[in-house]
C-alpha cells in the first residue's frame, strides 16, 4: 500500500475540533491506498450500480447513481485492469446532470477531469470509496456513458447507516420535471421536497483544491454515502417577499472521524447531492453551498446535535423515473441509525422546543421514587436552582451524558444505538408546580417529577429503574437542559387572573401516556381549591393500560377537601391482560376500593370507538391525546369518523 493522501487543512480543523485522537489523524494516510487493492477491484467489477461525481465547467459537483448492469445490454458493466484503470459503461438518462457535466469542458481548464465515487452494495452494506481523474468520457443521446477512470485514492468504509434493499434492473422512461442545471435557483417543487423527506439514502459529493502541493495534499473530490432513518435529512425554507431560499440539513452521524467530506466543505462550500427514490425510480440532484455548524451553532438549529452540515440549495434537477432500478424487497434500515432529529423551528411549531433557564447550568438530583406498577415509577428530582416551570403538561430535558458517556465507539454490534447515543431524554413532567393564589400563577420550583415506564431494551428507562437507589443515595446530579409546554390544556389568563382550561374536555391516554394528564389534573385541582369561582371544567378520561399499569390512575383519586361542583372528572379504564391474571385482578380491586363507581369504571377489554361515541357532548369537548403511536392513529381515525373537528384535537408526540 503506497501512502499518497495527507489530511488537508479543512480535515485537520474538523479533526481537532471534534477531538480526533492524534494516532487516528497520523494513521489516516495509511488507510488510503494509491493502488486499488484486488478485493476492491473484484468488488467494483461486480457492482450493478455505481454512484459517481464530477465537476461541471463552473466547478460545481454533480453526483449520480449510474446503472452498471443491464438486462437489455450485456455490454454495460465495470472492468478493472492494471495501473488503477477502471472502464465503466453505464446507463443513465439524458437529463442526468452528471452526464451533462461530462459534456462540458473540465472545470480545471486543462485535460484533467476529476471524479469520485463510492462503490456500494445494498445487499450486504459493503462500500469502498474511489477517486482520481477521468481519462475518457463519452455520452450518447440516450444518456449512456462510457468512462475510463484513473484512480489514485482507495478506501474501505464501514457498513453503518446503509439501508439494505434488493434492487433489479428495469427500463424506465425518464421525464424531466425540474431543471436548473444551467441557472441558479433555490426553490424546490413539492415533489422534490417529498423525495428528500422520505429518503434514507443520499450521496454527497465534495471537492478540495490544494493550495500547497508540497504538503502532500492534492486537488481532489470525494463522494460519500449518508444514511439514516427516513427523514433524517431535514428541509426548511426562508421567504423574503417572493424569494424562496431552501436549506437542507444533514446531521453528522458518528463515523470514522476522518472528516473527509466535512473537511472538504471547510475549504470549499460547493457540494452536490443525489437523492434516489428507489420506490418510484425518481432522482433528485441538488447543487448547493454548504457550511458545517458545530456545538452551540448546531444546537441552535437542531437541538441535541453538535455537528451538522447546512446546505443552501443553488440548483436542482428532478428526473421522474430517471433510475433504471426497481425495489424488490422491503427496506431494512440500519440498526445504527439514530432517531430523526428535528429542527428547532419544527419543534417550536409543535411546542416542543426546550427553553433554557438562562446561561447558568442547572443540575437535577434524584431524591426519591414512587412505584406505581411493576414497570412504571415516578422519579422525583431536586433542581440546583428554581425554574419557571412550564404550564402543567409540559416537559423537561435531562442530560445523563456526564454520568454515562464513555466516549467514542466506532462500531458496537451488541448495541448499535450506543454509537450515536447522546444520553439526553425529554420526559413529560408528571408534577405540577405549586399554584400561588395571591399572584394567580404557578410558582417557580426546584422540584420536578417524571413518570417513566421501563421499556424492554430501552437504555435510559432501564438505567433509571435499575439504578434509582444508587443515584439517590450518592446524590449524583444530571444536567437539566430546559423545559417547554407544547402539550397542555392550560392557557395563560389575562394579567392578574389564573390560567384557564376548556369547559369540557376528553382526555385519551394509553400506558405511560397518562403522565401529562397527571400534572394537568394536579394544576386544575390547585386552582379549583384556591379560586373555586375561577375554575370550571368537565373532564372524561379514557385510559388504556396493560396489567397493573392501570395503577397509575391512583394519581387521580378524589383530593382531600371538596372540589367545586363545576370541576368533575369521570374515568373509564380499559385493561388488557396478557400475563398475570392475579396481578391484573389485584390492580382492579385496589382501584375499586379507592374510587366510587360514579368516578371510575373498569373494563377488561380494549378501547373501542363506541366508547368515544358515548362520551356526552363529544363535539363540544377539546380532545387531548397521548400514548403509543398505534393508539394515536386509531384515535385520529375514530375522531374523524365521529366528525370531531380537527381544530379540537390536540395530540402529544414522543418523537422529540
TrEMBL record:
One GO MF annotation is: oxidoreductase activity
Q: Where is the FAD-binding FR-type domain?
A: 359-490
InterPro entries reported for this sequence: FAD-bd_FR_type (IPR017927), FNR_nucleotide-bd (IPR039261), OxRdtase_FAD/NAD-bd (IPR001433), Riboflavin_synthase-like_b-brl (IPR017938), Split_barrel_FMN-bd (IPR012349)
PROSITE patterns linked to this entry: FAD_FR (PS51384)
Residue ranges under compositional bias (Basic and acidic residues)?
A: 8-20
A Pfam family matched in the record: NAD_binding_1
The record's region (Disordered) falls at: 1-21
Q: Which PANTHER family does this entry report, sorted A to Z?
A: FAD-BINDING, PUTATIVE (AFU_ORTHOLOGUE AFUA_6G07600)-RELATED
Name the record gives this protein: FAD-binding FR-type domain-containing protein
What organism does the UniProt record list as the source? Answer: Thioclava indica
Q: What is the lineage of its organism?
A: Bacteria, Pseudomonadati, Pseudomonadota, Alphaproteobacteria, Rhodobacterales
